[in-house]
Amino acid sequence: RKTPQKSFSSQEKPPNKTIMSFRSSLKLSNRLAPTSIRSPSRPQIIKSLNPTKYTRTYATKTKGPIEWYSNMLESHPLPTKALTSGTIAMLGDVNCQYLQSTSSTPFDLPRTLRFTFLGCFLIAPVTHNWYNILLNLIPGTGVKSIIKRVVLDQAVFAPCFIPAFFVSVKLLEGKKLNDSINDLKNVFVDMYTTNLVLWVPASSVNFAFVPQRFMVLFGNVVGLVWNTYVSFKSN
Prior knowledge:
Number of helices: 9
Largest sheet: none
Order of helices and strands: HHHHHHHHH
Radius of gyration: 36 Å
Distance between the termini: 114 Å
Helix content: over 70%
Structural class: mainly alpha
Shape: extended
């Protein structure tokens, strides 16, 4: 049976058979071609050439140590402060041993490790939680708020934390609790007086100008001097 031919009006022109054949072959090749080699559409090309992606990646790779440390304080506050406190406590004891060293005095590594351990697991968590309590208890940035925090810090926290740290050092050395307390009685007045001289101005600066997340870091920097002194008094 013959296929009926399409009739055209006098104004229409019959399509060119060559053009129709080219169009059909182009559609067929596009369907059979893998998607990986097909030409991307214009929006995909523009998206792939978007410079924002490269700018953002470059900025991430080139951010400075302060920004990196700040991000770590936000994402992992307590572990970051623990590592920082442990490092500062270690440096404080190393500095003290260097100042006390003689030609016949060997370096005491276990002593340094004890200070590092207490810096990570005593100083960092205690000061982290204490600053949170203190700022929630006495909010604000005025002079009165700062004075109240400093007074509370030195009248309540320091008299409790100094004995706790000192006795912990002695217990890790292998001494008995009673002997550690007796050693504390001999040095507590001197240690608390030195604490007031050092930490009253340092705490004033800390509470007045330092953001909350950097307070432990600032305390650790000042603590380098303090830990050197405590290492000296405890040994």
